[in-house]
Amino acid sequence: MENTTDYRVVTEAEEAREYLDGAKVIAFDFETAPRAEWREDALAALDAHKADIVGVSFSVAPGTGIYIPLAHRDGGNADPEAVIPLLRDMVWENPEVVKIAHNMAFESMFLYAHGIILREPVYDTIAAAQMTLKSPDEFRSLNDSGLKTLVPNLFGIQLPSFTEVVTRGLSARNRTRTAAVVPARAPHATSPDPFGFDMLSPNDPETIRYACADSDFALRLYDRFNEWFDRWLPGHRWIVEHVESPTSVYCGLMKYNGLPMDRETMIRKQGECSEKLNELRWKIHEITGNVDIGANCGTKAFKDYLFQDLKLPVLKTTEKNAEAADDQTMQMLAEWCKEHKPELVPLFELVQEYRKWGKLKTTYLDGYLKYINPATGRIHPDLMPLATDTGRFACRNPNMQNCPRKSNDPIGIRSFIKAPDGWRLVSCDFSQIELRVGSFYCRDPKMLEVYRTGGDIHAQTTSIIYGVPYEQAKDKNDPDYKERRTVAKGVNFGLFFGLFPKGLQQQLKYKGGLNPSLEECAAILASIRAGYPRLSAWQEETKRKAAGLCYTETHLGRRRYLLGIMSTDWGRRSFAERCALNTPIQGTAADILKLAMGRMIDGLAERPWIRPVLQIHDELVFLVEENHVKEGVCFVKECMEEKPFPGFDVPLAAEAAVGKDFGNLEEV
Q1: What is the pLDDT of residues 438-495, one digit of tens each?
Q2: What are phi and psi of 351, to 5 degrees?
Q3: Kindly report the CA angle at 283 between 278 and 287, in degrees rounded to 5?
Q4: How many angstroms separate the CA atoms of 179 and 195, rounded?
Q5: DSSP assignment of 357-384, as one string?
Q6: Using an 8 Å Cβ cutoff, are 381 and 399 in contact?
Q7: What is the pLDDT of residues 165-174, one digit of tens each?
Q8: Is 475 exposed, middle or buried (0-12, 13-18, 19+ CB in 10 A)?
Q9: Cβ contacts of residue 166 below 8 Å, gap of 6+?
């Protein structure tokens, strides 16, 4: 690492003030360490419920930095009661200062534990990294965006790893200290934790260098990325500053709050689920003669039984041209057997039921129980705002975005998410956000009129498809209402993305329980093109533009490269064309949701009785004190329904629901 750095330790509030005073751009970084009872937990230092801030570093100019120790075991710390309020006012809650951090969600989570919510302007350099290119047509992934990866690649400087610094620091300390002054170890630890940053001396040059380098290089990345954005993709800089960085702050709040879980009920249901699976397995074995079906009826033995012993037709194959055995295949075989071998229909009904219960147990009961945090009794999933090409969130450890709906969940998985006493779960969901964004893009007069007058887009589409009056299309007492509306919904949710007759047929068959012919589906789509003429025109214009540029963009300028759009291979080109249509709509909808999150941040600081806990596609979930539910719903709806950016002229609507548990919410 360069020798031209000016890093130093600071323990007095006035020294910190002198360094930070007048700076308009400040990078900061936390060093954390587990509390005594969690010293054996390898990941505890990353958890604000198990760890504390040991120290904080700041950088206001490249090559400089200060480290303020707060909780090192050897002493030599600043007084937190003097320093924290100063830093809160000068930096974290100061609207005149740009706050920079590499992985802003982490710092946001630890500040939230101290009752501090970062205030804009903020800048997350890990988000900026993911919005820059690592090759002419490929953006960096999260795995490419760590500080220890970026700094060598962009600055040619190798930063020491956490393990190296702590190991060297402890070795040096042990050479100069006697056993008599070694701090008492945690009661559950077998030895003093060699990976605790709090065990290092805050005055050791290696400690200071390691801590300050993180802030220094976050500041340098801020300058480097902004130079790149201004030259190549100015729209991405705006997105990083006004969309992704505030979203990172919001993610830290969600991560800290977590989802309260009814663990006792989950364990009881786990046993009931095992009994149900044993019952279903026994019934299947009665039919198959004890063929090994494994955990999901996907074993080679079971496939051999279907396709070799029973001689059933291979209706679908895998990419490797082997017999498929996924859920759709089982449904297709069940349909075939209804006509050709009705005696086998019960087998496929049992298989689908077995698979459903198997997934409920392994994914949602076993899986969720594994992630309940023993310090909180809650699940604190990782929400990743930039994990998809369109800018939509992804979720892991565990994936809480795929909680099953009531219609396909006899256990009631969502009801395990249960508000504590005195609180309620509140869900606010954008109503038909992608259809509204699609209407904004294609400018079709009928679509715009429906949304501007508070009409029913599914009834409008029903009217176009079946040639019936709009009033009749929305009449729930009409004998054809349910089937026609199912068709209209299937069309609406796919029509902006280049839906083909076969795709519509499968959607209506497997999701709507209908069985239209390909000819009927083609006629439906033809009537839609005629009824919404600007839709087809927009689709052709968008595909033509993407083919010329080899990329597509959202309204705010979020770019996605589509090299396959020029391919001579129909499948590859067709996929790229669907992405060209999908990305502007889905990506703009994602940006609108993220902008709403940013608007909420300042308001949440004034409303500690609202706690964000989860994001699911177009939905935000909160814990709200029960005596503040009404005003909490009003606040969230106002933030979500506000005009997202200049020129967006389609009204937004957020639908709220409230309940004691997530599985039993009632619309407000």
Answers
A1: 999 999 999 999 999 998 898 998 898 888 999 999 899 999 898 888 888 888 878 7
A2: -60, -45
A3: 140
A4: 18
A5: HHHIIIIIIIHHHHTEETTTTEE-PEEE
A6: yes
A7: 877 766 666 6
A8: middle
A9: 194, 195, 196, 197, 199, 200
Report whether 63 contacts 4 (CB < 8 A).
yes
Which tens digit of pLDDT belongs to each residue from 577-630? Answer: 999 999 999 999 999 999 999 999 989 999 999 999 999 999 999 999 999 999
Length of the chain (residues): 668
For residue 523, CA distances in Å to 458, 466, 512 come to 18, 10, 18
Show the tokens assigned to 572: 């590859």
The answer to whether residues 323 and 299 touch, using CB atoms and an 8 Å cutoff, is no
Residue 14 dihedral angles phi and psi, to the nearest 5°: -65, -35
What the block records as the tokens of 559 is: 């770019």
Q: b/e string for 479-489 if b means 16 or more Cβ within 10 A?
A: eebeebbbbbb
Tokens of 153: 């690649």
| Contact predicate 136/113, CB 8 Å | no
Q: Is 459 within 8 Å of 453 (Cβ atoms)?
A: no
Asked if residues 438 and 648 have their Cβ atoms less than 8 Å apart, the reply is: no
Q: Which amino acid is at 347?
A: L
List, in order, residues 6 or more apart from 125 with CB less than 8 Å away. 100, 101, 102, 218, 221, 222, 225
- Of 167, 161, 619, the C-alpha closest to 425 is 619
Helix, strand or coil, per DSSP, at residue 424? strand
Residue 279 CB partners (closer than 8 Å, separation 6+) = none
CA–CA dist 667, 659 (Å, integer)? 9
**CB atoms inside a 10 Å sphere around CB 177:** 12
Helix (H) or strand (E) holding 323: none
Backbone angles phi, psi at 49, to 5 degrees: -90, -10
List C-alpha distances in Å: 610 to 68, 252, 289, 622, 662. Answer: 32, 15, 56, 7, 16
Rg of the Cα atoms in the chain = 28
Q: Render the burial of 368-404: b for 16+ CB within 10 Å, e for the rest.
A: bbebbeebbebbbbbbbbbbebbbbbebeebebbebb
Strand partners, 247: none
